[in-house]
## 1
Amino acid sequence: MNYYSLHHKSPKTTFKNAVVQGLAKDRGIYFPERITPLSDDFIQNITKYSNHEIAYQVIEQFIGDEIPSEQLKNIIAETISFDFPLVNIDDNIASLELFHGPTMAFKDVGATFMARCLEYFNRDHEEDVTVLVATSGDTGGAVANGFFGAKGVNVVILYPSGKVSDVQEKQLTTLGSNITALEVDGVFDDCQEMVKTAFLDVDIKKTLTSANSINVARWLPQMFYFFIAYKELQKRNKSLVFSVPSGNFGNICAGIMAQKLGLPIKHFVASTNVNDTVPNYLRNGVFNPKISKATISNAMDVGNPSNFIRIRELFNNDLKELKMTLSSYSFSDNETREGMKSIYSNSGYVADPHGAIGYLGLKKYGLSESEFGVFLETAHPVKFLDVVEDTLPVKVDIPEQIQKVINNKKVSIKVSNYDGLKEFLMKS
């Protein structure tokens, strides 16, 4: 499988090179040259397959022969090592819980898959690869865990100071070993821009790649849980609507990719906080990125979502066609808290702020009797402990995954701008 830059100024490349490079030389993100729908027989008989078999069928065409079949199956087995349960909220809405992995966030899937692919590609190389990743919260912890101790791989995580939760910060700053956290004086978009700038800096001689969802190996495996969810949802015999809490738009883009592969999803809702670049675009046809604003759903605090260009590519940049598949709504912090309260009072379910926004998106979309809605619960409520316990009359138990890091000492290096990142990379 070849990949091309969405800026269309760099040559096509292989899956391996797309993973190792992260970003094309023209600063464009990579996109697969072809998307071949899976067979109707596979979709109709999906209940006969294990989750690992489903994942293999979904991802294999995007890798081709660059990773041997058995090795790819081993990577998938390590990636899908936990469940993705559907929890009914009411008669026509369920939560798809993606937080049962090691860092209790949906990004465990993509981070683990990418880490194992990069390890495979770097297996015979003496030169280390440096993974640069910007995080608004959950990506950093997932990447730190996924790459921890990986041979020949050093990880540098950039996160906005004071704009991630305490639990998130502990997950990305306490592991040590091959993981380094840089605490940036700015917002997530600043971190993301610093990463992109480093890729093109000729003074930096290290081999750099990115573990953000701009990397195809981080992004594509997020298709897995849409297919796995469908295995259970198929029996409902209803049209499916997925509402995805959206920040950098990698997750919902993976869902739309799943649809393009033949998964019968009727509609997607991109549910955002007040960082409403995409809702505004769908309303007025103008893509106008803005400086991100801090919210209680911090993992979605993105003003310039990198993956939205992939979504536009999937619809040939045809806004009218896109709007037939995708709706997008934004919600304030107050609305988010009211959503959390509504879910809890109606069902006893404790949703984190991101999941609550997903729920609100379904409500605003307005499901018909023939439709069934699923919102993605992208992180465990413990990741946002203060917000959850301040909003709901609950005491959140601390899961084992979080107990392992909560009392560890934070270690980070403060940087104020790109020059600080460059200096660190040149010296390390």
## 2
Amino acid sequence: MVPEKCACWHVAMLYGDESSKGGGAVMTDIKIAKNLLRVEPSASSIASQRARTLKAEGRDIIALSAGEPDFATPEHVIEAAFDAARRGETRYTNAAGTPALKAAVIEKFKRENDLDFADDEVMTGNGGKQILYNAMLSTIEEGDEAIIPAPYWIAYVDLVMLAGGTPVIVKCPVENDFKLTADALEAAITPRTRWLIINSPSNPSGAVYSAQELREIADVLVRHPHVAVLSDDMYEHILYDGATFATIAKVAPELKDRTITVNGVSKVYAMTGWRIGYCGGPAPLIKQMVKLQQQTTGSTCSVAQAAAVAAITGPQDFVKPRTESFRERRDLVVSMINQAHGLSCPVPAGAFYVFPSCADLIGKKTPDGKVIENDTDLVMYFLESEGVAVVQGAAYGLSPFFRISFAASEDDLIQACERIQRACAELR
């Protein structure tokens, strides 16, 4: 719920004068920005923190709430960071990124996506999230709208609201493979629409848009030149069962001048903590996004940028085996969740999440008589009764579902799924 009136943070400020020497404090009210009050804390972060807290208390907890590969960062990437530090590459860098990283990003887009970008058409950020925030804050004014297909990555809605915009949520049911259709997009566009945000492969559903599906979406956008596209391609390399990756700027070259193509090193290279995202887009917008970044974080970590160069330009032979490992885990989790009473789990085509429906469990009672009224109740029941942390579908804009990250060991996945099966069997 968005608060309609301002709230204040009551802060005790100790001043170095006679009035405070007796241990007293001067109270002041600091007004919190309305746009920030509209934003909820990240549900996945809350779930992960709750799991860590319970684990610290001695509970046996299996956390499948975080979207974080359990593989190690490749050794040659780590060595590149060490080498950069030893060379003294520990200073501020250009806000848009080092020349080496920008060149690597340009080459990557050409090599893997057949997209041509000039130097002033690419930039880096502190993770893909900062790129997204830069784009929203650079373009959205109060009342502007951004179309977000649901289920969606949690941050999209909050970043739009932080910029003062209005998220327009278009629900994409499981019957449509959780994907936006051209007709649904057409119906959602208004004169205030500024962005369509599209994520393929998708977090949380694992849905993958085909080139044809993106072409149909593009045909709608061609008729609405005031709408820009943000294509979040973070899970580009994690694909299964012969699925092929497509990105809208390539599928529809006529939209390239109003498309931001976002990617990063977090997922495929297991570099979540290195915080390097990047994008390609029209030079006038990139210029403004860089200007914004100059006034926020300034630049990204210099040694992390050197590591990202090594990741993007170095050996890629580990990607396929890791993806195959994810596929095996996917198949394991899908099979076991579909054996749980009242759950139905579609098979994702990409990323490392499943998004099961729990519709048949809504209204059931736990052994202590509590009614499961929604997917939030269900995930709390899993956590409290069996020590399994997952994230409710409501956090991703579509209920009744929940998200499981299978970026975990096979042993943990088997144990967690057995616990979920047991918890579901006890509902009446």
## 3
Amino acid sequence: MTTAFTPLAERMRPQTLATYVGQAHLLAKGKPLRRALEEGYLHSMLFWGPPGTGKTTLARLIAHYWQAEFLTLSAVLSGVKEIRAAVEVAQDNREQLGKATVLFVDEVHRFNKAQQDAFLPHIESGVLIFIGATTENPSFELNNALLSRVRTYVLRSLSTDDIRAILQQALHDQKQGLGARDLSLSTTALEQLVLMADGDARRALGWLEMAADLAEETEQGLVISDATVQEVASGSLRRFDKGGDLFYEQISALHKAVRGTDPDAALYWFCRMLDGGCDPLYIARRIVRMASEDIGNADPRGLQLALNAWDAYERLGSPEGELMLAQAVVYLACAPKSNATYSAFKQAMQDAKQSGSLEVPMHLRNAPTKLMKSMDYGKGYRYAHDEANAYASGENYFPEALQGQRYYQPVERGLELKIRQKLASLRGKI
């Protein structure tokens, strides 16, 4: 007889608040949800947060602390029939056993209006304690009638420290975790898992379990290599090579000639590629890339001309349309150069990947509903058009952790010279 497989993430669910990681803004001493649990204040609630932040686990812990039976429904798989069955169980618990019932509804936003309304009388009568979980904004996805009967708690993405602690716990736990396997994991591999999890504990534990299954036997015991973690977390990279080395050497030469402001060499390599049988549409796409990467806002007309040349070629075909591509190549080669946007984009993308899901500051959040306004969404936002030069001096538009970051550094060439001067003036540097 085979034993049913239980995923590591399920085995590692905390059984007490002491072992629950994250959501300190709700569960630290003196915080609202912690007080409700300790004081036995039973109430229906809604958990709103990204995947893997502990919504289901927290609902289970609440049922445990309130000594209530825990029932669960998935809005993806359940309907009114299943809701009625759960209500009957809750009524029996209340009338015959004097026991409370927690009904946890995962993905509650997937229920339609009629299904959501089915909970209302039972929440009001106290037959059951409703706990819903959603990854979507409840202001848009849930009925106002249901929202008015529950207290909404916002769960945040777990920090890197939280994810690291969860992984370490799973690695060393002898009973529920991987501790009995005596696995070794380098600091680099651990941090890679932490970073790629992006605040999702379930994802992190899933990857750790897969990596553990692929651990290599060495003289030092079972080792999870950095390469294994990379393979598990990001998948194997598939090679894409449509042409030979010479093909890519020529397009590289064309690109570098344009970047180096040599229209003659650029035109030569363009013609070499055409003569070698290269698809002109491939070159057209690369020309558009050059216009953005190497000319940018120093001459924004370059991008428009590149797009026009691409369009003209598609209309005329070869050989007539090739002249338009040649025109774009020559123009871009002669244009003032700037890679400021390209560099800024790469830096911003790196920060976006490495910093995880940083929260949008409250003053930048839109607040079209009463619930969102009551949670201080949009509070303190300064409308730029109401200020001098339509510029809210000193306002922060970044997540708090990145405040003051600078990516875009306009060069002193072409139109970017004027952009540079404008930004400097607004920022009070001249």
## 4
Amino acid sequence: MTQLWQWKDKLLKNPFIRSLSVLMAGTALTNLIIVLTTPLLTRLYTPEEFGVYSVFLSLLFTGTILVSLRYETAIPLPEDEDEAFHLLVLSIILAFIVSALLCILFFFMPISQLLNVPELETYMWMLSLSLLGIGIFQAFNSWALRDEQYMMISKAKMTMNSSQIASQLSLCLFQLGLPGLLIGEIIGRMTGSLDYFRLIKRTHKAVYKISAKSLVKVLIGYKSYPIVSSWAALINSLGTQMPIFYLAAHFDAKTAGWFFLAQKILTIPEGLIGFSASQVYLSQAAQTARNSQEHFRQFFWDTVKKMIVIGLIIIGLVALCALLAIKIVFGEQWIQAAEFIQILSVLYFMKIIINPISANFYVFNALGKQFISELIRFILICVSLFLALEFFVTPTTSLLCISLVSATGYLIHGIFAWSTIKEYKSEEIKHD
């Protein structure tokens, strides 16, 4: 018993575990709200409407990679405070510019027709507003990570998700259908950044001392992020979103809606564990790496072991309970989503493990290696989609092929992340 208490005290004193717990607590509360409200949404909106909405979100998450050209991911890295602040300002400026350019692009390109969702054509302009909101949110989130403001991160994320859900539920009263889902999404993205404005004003004395020279300096100094990292991240995002595009275009919006619900449920443990761990890992990795290579190796493998155990427990429980839970909570029309959850559980288990350690590419400035890894994963996903199209005629078998091949891609990505450790010197960690 004494050893048990000693072990507990040791865990609580561990900075990684302590920081992870703060983020997990906030994410857990947010996810609890999602869990409680999603059954209402699935009864107020049809699988077809959710299917079109899922395509909208897939386009949004793909565009998210481009909205700040990945400069926001560099914000936690510089030792110089002013340099980091100008990276924040640059990221926000780029979010406005890129979202406006994409709005023009959406006007001329028949994206909705290509994806077999003509219902979305009228609302493509909303995508730019959501992109702007998420671009600003990402930039502020990275700044909060730099300051290790984990409580603020949890609060901001909860605000974003709560306002989104509340808006979607409220707008349903006006029987808007699909527009209600889309408008609620925009409101959530925009309100999510409000808490961060107060953080910036409170923590940075040079908030009104923005220098054009300094902006140009960080624009050029961190050019590897838009040139290399953005493409790697875009490939990563496309690989993640392509199944939605495939299911909507090859089958129908209803199938895409089932897949969306399955993803939504599995994203809860991934957000609770994987995303929170990624934030903490990125925050602590640079400082840990400066100590010694051996110290960082231990930090790396400790993280992997923790993620394997936690992932097995959480994802395993979700997969086992899926069939009964979906039927009771969401209704008979969503029962197919339960089978999709079980098929995708292997993929999401691997994502929980690999996502935190992917920060190695940024810590050690191994963006070229990240690009190669993401390209391999993207090629594997393309191969899986080809195999699904040619040899598997049902959504279930197609998704099984995609899930297994995608999980293999994440495993390869993790191996590449590990390989970055061997190639650095503790006194020469580059951030340029």
